[in-house]
Design a protein that fits this description.
By secondary structure, the protein is α+β, with helices and mostly antiparallel strands. It has a single domain, classed as HIT family, subunit A (2-Layer Sandwich), CATH 3.30.428. Helix content is 36%, strand content 16%. It contains four helices and five strands. It is globular, with a radius of gyration of 16 Å. The model has no long low-confidence stretch (mean pLDDT 90).
Amino acid sequence: MQIDPAYLLHQTEHWLLNHHLTTRLPGYLMLGAKAPIDSLADIPDAALAELGGLLARVQRVMETQLQPKWLYISRYGHMPGLPLHFHFIPVYDWVEDAFWQDERYRTLQGFGSQTLAKNLTDGAELTLFVWREFGESTAPPKIKGPSVVEVIQRLSAAFKSQ
């Protein structure tokens, strides 16, 4: 998959960091392997050695520049044709507020080991909300703060200055 250069934030010898191409959530980043691999077990030693420090650096820059309430870092990796990649999902206060205001997501309550209360949810539910509402919805929640373009510029500058 070719990444639009406008979304590319940073790259190293083995990894590309870009803003997620199809989300409207500012700061949702993807860190993908340059090599055509789809398993952690297949990462070349040099790329693996670079990965730990890079994951930490991306987290540090995102937390410093964007100040999300939560930052989810995950790997799903079952999309055919895509190399190994990690998702960095910032959950801002306003994203969590939008989640609680959307009655459709109240149906999730009670499915876990405990009934959820206001301000007590888990990453799976908020991740589902982000994917559905900022990625698939034709009418996503209102963005509060910098736009996707502004966040790309801010994060690109932060990576260049470090």
